[in-house]
Amino acid sequence: MRLSPLARAALAAACAVALALPAWAQRPPAGGLAAEMAAGAAAPEPAPARLPTERVLPMAIAQEAAAAAVAACSKGGHRVSAAVADRAGNLRVLLRDDGAGPH
After folding, report:
1. Are 73 and 95 in contact (CB under 8 A)?
2. Residue 102 — very low, low, confident or very high, per pLDDT cuts 50/70/90?
3. What share of residues in the chain are helix, strand, coil (percent, to 5)?
4. Which secondary-structure segment (H or E) carries 95?
5. 3-state secondary structure of 30
6. pLDDT tens-digit readout, 18-53
7. Are β-strands 81-85 and 91-96 bridged in parallel, bridged antiparallel, or unpaired?
8. Which residues of 70-98 are buried (b: 16+ CB within 10 A; e: fewer)?
9. How many CB atoms lie within 10 A of CB 69?
């Protein structure tokens, strides 16, 4: 089975997290969670800084971009629709100017 580059990256990140877990998280507690908490087990450590992060397109910025596109086209006498998608291709905002065609 071939994995896409995105799936490979996600799998690599999951493996990195599993390998970077502290010792207390890799072994099952002998007396259960309550016994570990009573013994004063440390709080979970934060995720390693080397994990990839992903920026998300906020809806407010997507709306602003679509509105600016429609306004610029309206100024030129064009009636248009403007769509903004995120990096995965999911529709974030769709604005259709008054009198814009169906396309």
Report:
1. no
2. confident
3. 40, 10, 50
4. strand 91-96
5. coil
6. 445 455 454 555 556 566 566 665 555 566 677 888
7. antiparallel
8. beebeeeeeebbbebeeeeeeebbebebe
9. 17
